[in-house]
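Recall that a protein's primary structure is simply its ordered list of amino acids. Everything else, from secondary elements to tertiary packing, is in principle encoded there. The following example makes that idea concrete.
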Amino acid sequence: MRITYHGHSCFLIETTGHRLLIDPFISGNPLATARADSIECDFILLSHGHDDHTLDALPIAKRCGATIVAAFELAEYLGAQGATVHDMNPGGARDFPFGRLKLTPAIHSSSTGGGQNPVYLGQPCGLLLKADGKTVYHAGDTALFSDMQLIARGGIDLAMLPIGDNYTMGIDDAVDALGFLKPALAVPMHYNTFPPIQTDPAKFVAKAAAAGFKARAMAIGETIGI
């Protein structure tokens, strides 16, 4: 399995025969190194409806013929705009051609638009993917919560965790999350894209190591294998 980081909370996961794009926010990300119109995938997995996780989902899905998998309201919202979708909800799991995906709880919100007329888009989620004999947990945007211990049942090879604070866990809570999840490797996400989430990922890596966990901050555009 190969994982490429495209900045913010966006990852491309390449399994045997499939390409899964998580939370595509590329064209609006000033730090992104790729072009949204150059990325190929056959599934798009969304954690929640905020624009910094969904901005490029619809155009990429239409161009690639990809299926969007998301919580019910978000999937229906995008389906009404012409995307091929599969709707789920937290706690539910399903076998797909690429492997098994379960939506997990996340403590956050989910909407699009703003001002006095936001469109609410159902429950925010984490994504628990089992494919190619590996288990990957993308926490989405979330606060720390103790039921992460349940998500870790069966073991986690890679955990992607937000560390930017303000809207999600900060570094200290993300390190505490490692105590619940016990992944073989942790990668930080959702930091430095905007001023409110500026932080130093090296501090997360160092604090994770001090707590007995392996972590690495991926450069935008970097690919690793697990």
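The chain has six helices and 15 strands. The mean pLDDT is 98.
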